[in-house]
Amino acid sequence: MDIQTTVIQLIDTLFMVDISDMMDEDLFDAGVLDSMGTVELVIELETTFNIKIPVSDMGRDDWNTGNKIVEGVKELQHA
């Protein structure tokens, strides 16, 4: 399974929202993510992809869309 599909499934499982048609929408503005949801998502991303997401990388504007989350995971896997 590719990273994008996995991220979409994680968000659907955690927040019961299918973001596949809104990959460039701000997930905070759309009501999908909030501060607590971000913590849950980070834990799941770290576990699922065996990565460590530094707190300094978790600015709202850095990980606020599905596509940015996918790109962030890819960058951390190749770091």
TrEMBL record:
GO terms for molecular function: D-alanyl carrier activity; ligase activity. One of its GO terms (biological process) is cell wall organization. Its main location: cytoplasm. 4'-phosphopantetheine is transferred from CoA to a specific serine of apo-DCP. It is found in: Cytoplasm. The lineage of its organism: Bacteria, Bacillati, Bacillota, Bacilli, Lactobacillales. Keywords: Cell wall biogenesis/degradation, Cytoplasm, Ligase, Phosphopantetheine, Phosphoprotein. InterPro entries: ACP-like_sf, DltC, PP-bd_ACP. Gene3D superfamilies: ACP-like. The gene is dltC. This is D-alanyl carrier protein. Residues 1-77 form the Carrier domain. It comes from Pseudolactococcus paracarnosus. GO terms for cellular component: cytoplasm. Pathway: Cell wall biogenesis; lipoteichoic acid biosynthesis.
